[in-house]
Amino acid sequence: MSFFPRGIGMRLADFIGGVVFLILGLAVIYFSSQLEYYSEFGPGPGFLPLWVGVVLIGCAIFVIINVLKKHDKMGTFFKPRTKLGLHVLIIIFIAFLLLPFLGFSIGLALFVGITMRIMGRHRWVSCSLTAVVTAICIHLIFVSWLTIPLPQGLIGW
Amino acid sequence: MDLLNNLYTGFSIALTFNNIIYCLVGVFFGQIIGVLPGIGAPTAIALLLPLTFKADPTSALIMFAGIYYGVAYGGTITSVLINVPGESSTVMTCLDGYQMALKGRAGAALSIAAIGSFIAGTVSIIILMAFAPVLAKLALRFGPAEYFALAVMAFGLLTVFGGEQPIKTIISTMLGLLIATIGLDVVSGMPRFAFGVPQLLGGFDFIIIICGMFGIAEVFCSIEEPEEGELLKSKFRLRDLFLTWEDWIASRWAIVRGGVIGFIVGIIPAGGITTASFLAYLGEKRVSKHPERFGHGAIEGVAAPEAANNAASISGFAPLLALGIPGSPTTAVMLAGFMMWGIRPGPMLFQKNPDLVCGLISSMYIGNFLLLLINIFLIPAFVAILRLPYTIIMGFIVIFASVGAYSVNNNFFDVWIMLGFAVLGYLMRKLNYPIVPLVLALVLGNLAENSLRQALTISGGSFSIFFTRPISAIFIAAAILAYLTPVIRWGLKGLRPSRADVS
């Protein structure tokens, strides 16, 4: 069984995209209407955002109508390798969560090692060695050479 | 005489040991990035930008410029050898370059690409050095009305060059403008769309957005739809790179025409190097006495687009340096770099920082010469890079993007924001919303808004200021024409009988 609902075509995805921009346009108009539209010195802070919101709504309606006029699915939104992309996103997400505790050098090196294993199906030994070399390189380049104050985590490296 | 003086000043800066090294590093990186799939010049410069904060601005800009025009050289290698463009600007090179490679003439294709790029690039640099100061002098007459009109024209031209669906290009532009308004309003001091979040009061830093939308989003897209091609197993010998007399005869005018088209398109805001190579190829095919040879290994089909993309990458610096208006995502990222160092590009740059301008432009002569040598003698080394697993490249991108985003303000909030923009960039690409208009609108947003407000304040709220000042009126007219182009195209399509009707 497929991980993603393959039934979602580009047509539906495009429709959802149009609706999202329509809602965004309405929200922009609402929030910018709370800002001053025109001051005694000229246009106020709400002037440009309000018109951006108006144009967004107009264009979003155009996109939605355009989608509704089409009848074919226009291809599928999810591709066979989308799942792999999602895996990488999850790994990045977890790596970023762990960065404050592990530090940049070790956190990002672990990310490289794990993605090499999952995506590239490299051997554990290669992945581990690459992770160690990556950690050393990150530390040497960014911390020692460029003196960027990267968080060093609980291990202090 | 001004030109000679500028050249002398420029070379005295560009030829220092430090700047030659920066230039060499830039073109070498550019060449590698051009070869690697899933990473382009804006991404590379954005990823490196936060790391050059402490560097001398002239040296760092020389390196970034080297990356920019080096990428166009590097992308050619993959176009010729695996029929996959390393960069969008080398798409047209695939058509004839790969066919030449299949016939055992890969060396000649790579050679004419390097030589054509070098000739067109060098001539473009001379014209740029003569033309940019003139443009800057003209721009000294620009007031807020002209700057706003120029920004509107740039946004309008994006709908012509930006993508297949103009309406989505406009949405993308609006999104960029909207993001640019987030934070404290510089005129009134009022917070806009910050929703009480203190980190949002300063707005989103451009670097963070670029790292996400170009860097990490590109990773997701490359994983989903990898650009794979089979590397032609041919060994390169130095003699394979030599061109025959017939090759020279066939390509000499193609290089000239490609260079001219490239230079002109590069100057137009939003014109871009991809459009330049596309137009040069089509133009060459149209003037050729043997158009049937195109697509089957015509050497002029390689020479013209390659000359064009390099000329356009050089001339793209004219609007950035003289007007402070970037014409492409790469120059937009470089504008962010100027701002990071507290330098404002535009007409005053030529008076306040002549050394920087002359040094930067002169370094391009050196960079192009270095690239010519690299492309003749080091092609096999770059072919080896093609065998690098994508997981390693992906690791590099994620590391540089994360460190880059963090180092802007030294906080994790920016790293998460970058990831958010990466997801947004990925979804937009999937739904065919172009990213480039968002980036340009983001970088020009503040200039456009402030100019609009200043102009309307001057005119007492009357929009006539944009139509009564001649330069502003020309820009606005060009913008209106650009916005109407899709409608005109649609109308012409309706009038023209379809192919089915004709047959």
Question: What does it look like?
Answer:
The complex is a heterodimer of chains A (157) and B (503). Helix content of chain A is 68%, strand content 3%. With 157 residues, chain A is an all-alpha fold. Chain A folds into 2 domains: 10-69; 82-145, no CATH class. In chain A, helix 3 packs antiparallel against helix 4. The mean pLDDT of chain A is 87. Chain B has 503 residues and is mostly helical. Chain B has one domain. Chain B is 73% helix and 1% strand. In chain B, a hairpin with a 6-residue loop joins strand 1 and strand 2. In chain B, helix 3 runs antiparallel to helix 4 and helix 4 runs antiparallel to helix 6. The longest helix of chain B has 34 residues, at 106-139. Chain B starts with a helix and ends with a helix. The relative contact order of chain B is 0.18. Mean pLDDT of chain B is 85; it is low at 498-503.
Mean pLDDT of chain A: 87
Total beta-strand segments of chain B: 2
* Tally of strands of chain A: 2
Q: Helices and strands of chain A: which structural class?
A: mainly alpha
Largest sheet report of chain A: 2 strands, antiparallel
Total helical elements of chain A: 5
Fill in the keyword field for this structure.
heterodimer; A: about 160 residues; mainly alpha; 2 domains; two-stranded antiparallel ribbon; flat; B: about 500 residues; 23 helices; globular
